[in-house]
């Protein structure tokens, strides 16, 4: 009988120890036990944080305390991976929803990133209120890689940047060409003198000589004088020949 009593007491003691070990232990007196785990979505298995985009992470929450709590907000921060120095805090997302005893909940949290590409320590936490006091629970604390977004042929900003840069380079090239490359000199054509006065043509084919240059008039006058003298000589020769013939006929 005593042996059976001793064995029963030993089995009860082992069961009690197991229950104590299995039950969650609150880290501080009066603080409720709330579990929180944050994971990236399936399409971001490596946990990359993309600059210029809204990065999403899911936070699973479980209230394992014996009290009802109120989820206040979810927030985060980026730190230097080696020195743990704060780089920047992410925006806090307020909820203000009650979380009953033993309830579980999964909520999305999105944050923006504009950092130099590289490795950073990301810390995500939630804050809840129990009995008028605020508590913080860490949901994610690990190294993540901040990367630039992948380029796309349909990226309007990228095409706009290319056009602006191309225009600047084209203007610079044109300026250098016109400044340092010798340009061919343009030949100046002498201006044509306009006729002075009005030119009036006559019905007999005459013309006014006032607009004709003087040297052309001198040449034409000399030509006319020479032609007239030649015609006079020919006429006198013809007349003298005719008179000679008449004299011979009289004889």
Structure, described:
- The chain is of the alpha+beta class and 251 residues long.
- Helices cover 33% and strands 31% of the residues.
- It has helices at residues 2-22, 156-180, 214-250, and strands spanning 34-39, 48-50, 54-63, 69-79, 86-89, 93-99, 104-112, 118-130, 133-147.
- The strands form two sheets. Strands 2, 4, 5, 6, 8 and 9 form a six-stranded mixed β-sheet that branches. The protein has a three-stranded antiparallel β-sheet with strand order 1-3-7, with no helix packed on it.
- A hairpin with a 6-residue loop joins strand 4 (69-79) and strand 5.
- It is rod-shaped, with a radius of gyration of 56 Å.
- The model is unreliable at 1-28 (pLDDT under 50).
Short description:
With 251 residues, the chain is an alpha+beta fold.
**What structural class results from the helix and strand content?**
alpha+beta
Q: State the share of residues found in helices, binned by percent.
A: 25-40%
How many alpha or pi helices? Answer: 3
The stretches of 5 or more residues where confidence is low (pLDDT under 50) are 1-28
Beta strand %: 25-35%
Number of strands: 9
- Averaging pLDDT over every residue, what do you get? 75
Biggest sheet statistics: 6 strands, mixed
Give me the strand/helix succession.
Answer: HEEEEEEEEEHH
Beginning-to-end CA distance, first to last residue: 209 Å
Radius of gyration: 56 Å
Overall 3D form: rod-shaped
């Amino acid at each position: 009988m005593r042996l059976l009593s001793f064995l029963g007491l030993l089995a009860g003691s082992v069961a009690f120890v197991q229950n104590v070990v299995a039950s969650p232990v609150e880290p501080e007196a009066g603080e409720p036990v709330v579990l929180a785990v944050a994971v990236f979505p399936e399409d971001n298995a490596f946990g990359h944080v993309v600059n210029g985009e809204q990065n999403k992470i899911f936070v699973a929450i479980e209230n394992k305390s014996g009290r009802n709590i109120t989820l206040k907000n979810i927030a985060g921060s980026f730190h230097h991976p080696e020195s743990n120095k704060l780089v920047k805090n992410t925006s806090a997302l307020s909820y203000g929803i009650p979380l009953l005893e033993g309830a579980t909940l999964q909520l999305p949290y999105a944050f923006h990133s504009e950092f130099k590409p590289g490795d950073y320590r990301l810390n995500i936490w939630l804050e809840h209120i129990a009995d008028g006091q605020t508590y913080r629970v860490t949901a994610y604390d690990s190294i993540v890689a901040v990367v630039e977004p992948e380029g796309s042929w349909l990226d309007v900003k990228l095409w706009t940047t290319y056009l602006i840069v191309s225009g600047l380079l084209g203007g610079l090239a044109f300026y250098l060409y016109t400044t340092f490359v010798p340009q061919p000199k343009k030949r100046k054509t002498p201006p044509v003198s306009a006729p002075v006065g009005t030119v009036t043509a006559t019905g007999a084919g005459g013309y006014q000589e006032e607009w004709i240059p003087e040297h052309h008039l001198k040449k034409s006058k000399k030509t006319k004088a020479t032609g007239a003298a030649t015609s006079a000589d020919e006429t006198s020769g013809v007349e003298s020949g005719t008179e000679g013939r008449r004299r011979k006929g009289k004889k």
